[in-house]
Queue: 2 jobs
Job 1
Amino acid sequence: MLAYVIRRVVIGVVLLLAMSLVTFVLFFASPIDPARFACGKSCAGNPVALEAAKKSLGYDKPTIVQWSDFVQGVVVGRDFPADEQLREAAPEIVTHCAAPCLGYSVYNSKTINELIKGALPISASVALMAILLWLTGGVLFGVTAAVFRGTILDRGIVGAALIFYAFPSFFIGTFLLRWVSIKWDIYPFPQYVAIADGGVFEWAKNLFLPALTLALLYMAGYVRMTRAFVLESMSEDYVRTARAKGLPGRTVLFKHGLRAALTPLVTMAGIDIASVLGGAIITESVFNYNGLGKLAVTASQTFDLPTLVGLVILLGSFVIVANIIVDVLYAFIDPRVRVG
């Protein structure tokens, strides 16, 4: 088991390096000069100022060297500006970015770590609440639909899931915000409150509507997939054998049927959780939550490449780590996976 986990971790580290290199090539090897946007109007028509900005930001170096500096910063930290001579000449302007350093945003005059530190708790809070809602509801309603297959209850659950699956997130979020919160005044207007400021209850209360927006989208898919996987597993020979032995229906369903259906659901959950942790762009924009999604939108509008690179690599890291966790969970759910 330990060898299996180590093998998956090594593969994950290699994927992280490859993903970061591809990201740098796509962002910094493009024909668009990132220094021109970082420098702003002061560099317009001023080649000397533009070259000075390139050297200060490290954009004058080859892409592979920039990537190498980035990886070094992730491991041991990094100082900005990137030009060593400029740092020695003016030590008062030096900004130290501790490991794991994801870069420096000239537009915000902050390290990417500081920007993420402020936005990540908000995105993680919304994601955590949404995950609890969609996993609980998706599995519960999916199992219920499978148990009552062909009945009105089954058709109603599947039909409702298809309806919510068809709605885009901006429609659900706008409806909940405008009608449920503002027009009908059924639920308080959501504003993010940290646990340290308002306690767990206020934190959860203000997260409910944005989390429900995400949960309704994902829950619809989990209902359909859980129903299909449970029905498939319940038709297997070992389940019929368990019934023939006289085991209670609840034991057959949860111990034999649902456990076999967990393997594909774990895959879905791992990828979805990683994606939501990276920031729900539309949902955060609708509810005006300053999470990673909104940070990414702002960075793309201002062409803040270092922030975009840091966010892309962070989201990619979430996905790769989630895959490693899923692989390890597979090994516990189905020991045959360890052989592969």
Job 2
Amino acid sequence: MRRLINRRPDVAMRFGLMLLPFLLVVVAYMIASEARLAVNPNDKLLPGWATISAAIERMAFLPDPRTGSYLLWSDTMASLQRLAIGVALATLIGGIFGILQGLVPYFRATFNAFTGVLSMIPPLSVLPILFIIFGLGELAKVVLVVVGITPFIIRDLALRTSEIPHEEIIKAQTLGASTWQIILRVVVPQMLPRLIDAVRLSLGAAWLFLIAAEAIASNAGLGYRIFLMRRYLAMDVILPYVAWITILAFTLDLALRLFQRAAFRWMYRGNGN
């Protein structure tokens, strides 16, 4: 008899098992919603599918009477722009400092403890400071994303860099490579796919910081809209917005993973992928 740990589901079974938790959540919501609506047809906590569909149509496909814009799409563009700028800056800073911190002893001795302390500061606790320094505009929201995820990217990439076999560094030096040649030709090519992994792992935190900043001081964005609707208990809008953020986050993660596979095929050779 084969042990459970040695059994492997086929493709169809894997797909079905993947969908199972989502279906269970949907069924549980439907049951709970029907039960509450049976008691109170005007219940706002768990609105029915018809109410949610109407809210999606209103937010995504009908122009707002006040601004003339399609609110879901304008909020999405505002949030994605802030997120893209913040993550790009964090990736650039984290990539440079992470490689130098993991490779250059003097750089590591100078910044290792400092980066560790920065990573322990809850980013949301400095949000009021950022608003005081940078104002309530776009800059403070972008800076919060940068402050929130850069220390993690630096520490992760520094650890990955330090794990490069020392023999490779010795061989490069034996061939006469300078420090910058070693960084550019030996370290950077190996660290770029690891940097993508670090960015993927930090996307969830980046969304958290962005939503928090938008909720406190903004006039557009997915986080702004969710917390605005909270005042009116408009769960028919809040739930689709939360689902849409989840879809966006999953899509960004998938795009980065596919780009990593296409750009760095050597990572997947010989491992069955």
